[in-house]
User: What shape does this take?
Amino acid sequence: MTLRELQLDLELDSTLLPSSVVAWINLARREIEEFWDQSSNSKKTEYVESDFEHVAEVLLHCQQKSWLACRELVEWGCGFGVVTGIAELLGLPAVGIESEGFLVEAGRRLLQKAGISAELFHGNFLPAGAAELALVEDPRVALQATMPSAYASINRPLTDFGCVFCYAWPGEEHFLKLVFDRFAAPDTLLVLYRGPYHIEVYRKL
Ligand SMILES: C[S@@+](CC[C@H](N)C(=O)[O-])C[C@H]1O[C@@H](n2cnc3c(N)ncnc32)[C@H](O)[C@@H]1O
Assistant: This one.
C-alpha cells in the first residue's frame, strides 16, 4: 500500500468549532432522533453515526495543517449527510454517497432545512471493480450494497476528490484502505472514523 498515516496531535475541544458547525450538528441530531422515532426502517439499516464533533475537529485540524488540497471531500456511506454538511461549512465543497435511498432523501431534506448546498447521491461509494479487492467470502458491510457505483451520476471520478471521509465498520478498514489506495489520486487524504475517540488520517503517496 502507498498510504502514510499522519499523526493527529490535537487536543479535543469542541469549543473551537465555528458556531455554524455546532448549530448544524445540533439541528441534525434533533432531526435524526425525530426521524427514527417516526420511522420503521431503523432496524433494517447499517447506519450508525460517528462522533460529529470529533470528526469536525479532525477536519478543521487537517485544514489548519494544510493537509487538504483545495479540492472536494466525498463522504463514503454518508447516512444523513451530517459530515458532508460539516465539511461544506468548514469551506470544503463536499458530496455524500449513500446506498439507502430513504437516508439520502432524509439527508437532502435536512441539508436543505439548514441551507447547506452540499449534494447527496444515491449509489455505491465503491468505484467499479473495487469489490474484487476483497476475498469472496469476506462479509464486508460495504459490499452489501450491490447497486452501481455513484461516480457516474456525480459526473466525476473518485480521483477528482481531495479527501475521503468514511466510518468503517469494525473489520472492513483494511478493505476500505485497499480501495482508497487503488482508486484515489495521489495526495488525497483518507479520514477514517474507527470508533469513539479513534480517527485515523492517511495520505496516499
Ligand atoms: C456506519 S454508517 C456511517 C454514517 C455517516 N458516515 C456517519 O459518519 O455518521 C455507514 C453508512 O454507509 C452506508 N453504506 C455501506 N456500504 C455502502 C456502499 N458500498 N455504498 C454506499 N453506502 C454504503 C450504510 O448504509 C450506512 O448508512
